[in-house]
Give the backbone structure.
Amino acid sequence: MTMRQFYDWQTAGGSSDVAKLVQTLEAREIPWCMIGGLAVNHWAEEPMATADVDLVIAAERVEEAVMALQECGFVAERFEWSINLKGQSRVSVQISTEPFYRNFPSRSLPADVHGILIRVASLEDTLAGKLRAYGNPQQRPSKRQKDLADIARLIETHPTLRARVPTEVLSRIAGESDGRAPENGTPTA
Protein backbone atom coordinates (compact mmCIF):
# COMPACT_ATOMS: atom_id res chain seq x y z
CA MET A 1 0.00 0.00 0.00
CA THR A 2 1.43 3.40 -0.95
CA MET A 3 1.46 6.37 1.43
CA ARG A 4 -1.25 8.01 -0.67
CA GLN A 5 -3.44 4.88 -0.57
CA PHE A 6 -3.00 4.69 3.20
CA TYR A 7 -3.93 8.38 3.53
CA ASP A 8 -7.02 7.84 1.39
CA TRP A 9 -8.00 4.84 3.51
CA GLN A 10 -7.60 6.89 6.71
CA THR A 11 -9.50 9.92 5.37
CA ALA A 12 -12.12 8.36 3.07
CA GLY A 13 -10.50 9.76 -0.06
CA GLY A 14 -8.79 12.77 1.47
CA SER A 15 -6.07 12.99 -1.16
CA SER A 16 -8.68 14.11 -3.70
CA ASP A 17 -9.73 17.01 -1.47
CA VAL A 18 -6.10 17.92 -0.75
CA ALA A 19 -5.22 17.72 -4.46
CA LYS A 20 -8.19 19.96 -5.32
CA LEU A 21 -7.12 22.44 -2.66
CA VAL A 22 -3.52 22.52 -3.92
CA GLN A 23 -4.55 22.75 -7.58
CA THR A 24 -6.94 25.63 -6.86
CA LEU A 25 -4.37 27.67 -4.93
CA GLU A 26 -1.51 26.96 -7.33
CA ALA A 27 -3.59 27.73 -10.45
CA ARG A 28 -4.29 31.20 -9.02
CA GLU A 29 -0.70 31.64 -7.82
CA ILE A 30 -1.90 32.30 -4.28
CA PRO A 31 0.96 32.10 -1.72
CA TRP A 32 0.16 29.41 0.85
CA CYS A 33 1.65 26.56 2.85
CA MET A 34 0.67 23.68 5.07
CA ILE A 35 1.33 24.01 8.77
CA GLY A 36 0.52 21.60 11.59
CA GLY A 37 0.58 17.83 11.24
CA LEU A 38 1.11 17.65 7.48
CA ALA A 39 4.14 19.94 7.73
CA VAL A 40 5.45 17.87 10.65
CA ASN A 41 5.00 14.74 8.52
CA HIS A 42 7.33 16.22 5.93
CA TRP A 43 10.02 17.15 8.45
CA ALA A 44 9.80 14.20 10.88
CA GLU A 45 11.32 10.77 10.39
CA GLU A 46 8.07 8.84 10.76
CA PRO A 47 4.87 10.25 9.18
CA MET A 48 1.58 9.89 11.03
CA ALA A 49 -1.87 9.86 9.46
CA THR A 50 -3.95 12.95 10.09
CA ALA A 51 -7.32 14.04 8.78
CA ASP A 52 -6.53 17.67 9.66
CA VAL A 53 -5.20 19.89 6.91
CA ASP A 54 -3.97 23.12 8.47
CA LEU A 55 -2.71 25.84 6.20
CA VAL A 56 -2.04 29.52 5.96
CA ILE A 57 -2.68 31.73 2.95
CA ALA A 58 -1.18 35.15 2.26
CA ALA A 59 -3.46 37.52 4.19
CA GLU A 60 -4.31 39.70 1.21
CA ARG A 61 -5.45 36.66 -0.80
CA VAL A 62 -7.52 34.75 1.80
CA GLU A 63 -10.92 35.89 0.54
CA GLU A 64 -10.01 35.13 -3.07
CA ALA A 65 -8.80 31.67 -2.03
CA VAL A 66 -11.94 30.89 -0.03
CA MET A 67 -14.20 31.96 -2.91
CA ALA A 68 -12.21 29.81 -5.36
CA LEU A 69 -12.35 26.80 -3.02
CA GLN A 70 -16.09 27.22 -2.56
CA GLU A 71 -16.50 27.32 -6.35
CA CYS A 72 -14.85 23.91 -6.58
CA GLY A 73 -17.07 22.32 -3.94
CA PHE A 74 -15.74 23.15 -0.49
CA VAL A 75 -18.14 24.47 2.14
CA ALA A 76 -16.72 27.24 4.36
CA GLU A 77 -17.45 28.06 7.99
CA ARG A 78 -15.84 31.16 9.53
CA PHE A 79 -14.45 31.55 13.03
CA GLU A 80 -12.50 34.30 14.78
CA TRP A 81 -9.04 33.01 13.80
CA SER A 82 -9.78 30.48 11.08
CA ILE A 83 -11.88 29.53 8.12
CA ASN A 84 -12.78 25.84 8.09
CA LEU A 85 -13.54 24.04 4.85
CA LYS A 86 -15.18 20.70 4.24
CA GLY A 87 -14.96 18.81 0.97
CA GLN A 88 -16.12 15.32 0.01
CA SER A 89 -13.85 13.32 2.37
CA ARG A 90 -13.24 13.19 6.11
CA VAL A 91 -10.43 15.71 5.72
CA SER A 92 -10.97 18.82 7.79
CA VAL A 93 -9.31 21.89 6.22
CA GLN A 94 -8.53 24.83 8.48
CA ILE A 95 -7.12 28.07 7.09
CA SER A 96 -5.48 29.97 9.94
CA THR A 97 -5.99 33.72 9.82
CA GLU A 98 -3.84 34.40 12.89
CA PRO A 99 -1.24 37.15 12.28
CA PHE A 100 1.44 34.86 13.79
CA TYR A 101 1.47 32.73 10.60
CA ARG A 102 1.34 35.63 8.13
CA ASN A 103 4.91 35.27 6.81
CA PHE A 104 5.05 31.47 6.70
CA PRO A 105 4.12 31.19 2.97
CA SER A 106 7.09 33.37 1.97
CA ARG A 107 9.46 30.83 3.57
CA SER A 108 7.67 27.65 2.45
CA LEU A 109 8.95 24.98 0.11
CA PRO A 110 7.48 22.22 -2.04
CA ALA A 111 7.28 18.76 -0.47
CA ASP A 112 5.81 15.34 -1.08
CA VAL A 113 3.63 14.36 1.88
CA HIS A 114 1.62 11.12 1.70
CA GLY A 115 2.35 11.03 -2.04
CA ILE A 116 0.81 14.47 -2.58
CA LEU A 117 2.91 17.43 -3.76
CA ILE A 118 2.17 20.35 -1.42
CA ARG A 119 3.88 23.42 0.02
CA VAL A 120 5.00 23.16 3.66
CA ALA A 121 6.17 25.70 6.19
CA SER A 122 9.92 25.82 6.74
CA LEU A 123 11.33 23.56 9.43
CA GLU A 124 11.75 26.46 11.85
CA ASP A 125 8.25 27.78 11.14
CA THR A 126 6.76 24.30 11.58
CA LEU A 127 8.38 24.05 15.01
CA ALA A 128 7.30 27.60 15.94
CA GLY A 129 3.71 26.79 14.98
CA LYS A 130 3.71 23.61 17.05
CA LEU A 131 5.20 25.42 20.06
CA ARG A 132 2.51 28.08 19.75
CA ALA A 133 -0.26 25.47 19.53
CA TYR A 134 1.14 23.53 22.50
CA GLY A 135 1.35 26.72 24.57
CA ASN A 136 -2.31 27.59 24.00
CA PRO A 137 -4.05 26.88 27.35
CA GLN A 138 -7.47 26.89 25.64
CA GLN A 139 -6.49 23.90 23.51
CA ARG A 140 -8.07 20.52 24.34
CA PRO A 141 -5.71 18.37 26.46
CA SER A 142 -5.62 15.65 23.77
CA LYS A 143 -4.65 18.22 21.12
CA ARG A 144 -1.92 19.64 23.36
CA GLN A 145 -0.52 16.11 23.81
CA LYS A 146 -0.46 15.63 20.02
CA ASP A 147 1.34 18.97 19.64
CA LEU A 148 3.89 17.90 22.27
CA ALA A 149 4.42 14.62 20.41
CA ASP A 150 4.89 16.54 17.15
CA ILE A 151 7.51 18.76 18.80
CA ALA A 152 9.28 15.62 20.04
CA ARG A 153 9.17 14.09 16.54
CA LEU A 154 10.71 17.23 15.06
CA ILE A 155 13.59 17.45 17.54
CA GLU A 156 14.27 13.70 17.31
CA THR A 157 14.74 14.06 13.55
CA HIS A 158 16.45 17.47 13.73
CA PRO A 159 18.37 17.63 17.04
CA THR A 160 19.62 21.17 16.30
CA LEU A 161 16.04 22.37 16.88
CA ARG A 162 16.41 21.52 20.58
CA ALA A 163 17.99 24.96 21.15
CA ARG A 164 14.73 26.59 19.95
CA VAL A 165 12.50 24.68 22.37
CA PRO A 166 11.80 26.18 25.81
CA THR A 167 13.27 24.23 28.73
CA GLU A 168 9.84 23.52 30.25
CA VAL A 169 8.70 21.92 26.97
CA LEU A 170 11.87 19.83 26.76
CA SER A 171 11.29 18.73 30.37
CA ARG A 172 7.73 17.75 29.54
CA ILE A 173 8.94 15.72 26.54
CA ALA A 174 11.58 14.00 28.69
CA GLY A 175 8.98 13.27 31.38
CA GLU A 176 6.59 11.77 28.81
CA SER A 177 9.26 9.65 27.15
CA ASP A 178 10.71 8.12 30.32
CA GLY A 179 7.35 7.22 31.90
CA ARG A 180 7.62 9.68 34.79
CA ALA A 181 4.47 11.35 36.01
CA PRO A 182 3.83 14.72 34.39
CA GLU A 183 3.61 17.92 36.44
CA ASN A 184 0.00 17.39 37.47
CA GLY A 185 0.90 14.07 39.10
CA THR A 186 -1.12 11.90 36.75
CA PRO A 187 0.91 8.87 35.60
CA THR A 188 1.49 8.49 31.88
CA ALA A 189 0.05 5.50 30.11
